[in-house]
Amino acid sequence: MIVDAVVHPYDLGPDNWPTGDETQLRALHPFHVASSGGAGNPWTLTEAEFFTDFDPDAMTAALFAESPVDMAIIHALPNLGFTRGGVTDVGRMAALRDRHPGRFLLYATVDTPVTDVAIKQLEHQVVAYGVDGLKLYPAFFSDGEAIGWRLDDDDFATPLLEAARDLGIRNVAVHKALVVPPAPEGVFRVEDLAAPLDRFPDINFAVVHAGVVFLAETCALLARHPNLYANLESSFAYILSKPRRFADMVGALLAAAGPERLLFGSGVNLVHPRPLLEAFAAFEMPDDLPPLTEGIRTKILGGNALRLHGLDAAEAPDDDFSRQLPAGFAPYWSRLRS
Question: Which helix (H) or strand (E) is 134 found in, with range?
Answer without folding.
Answer: strand 133-136
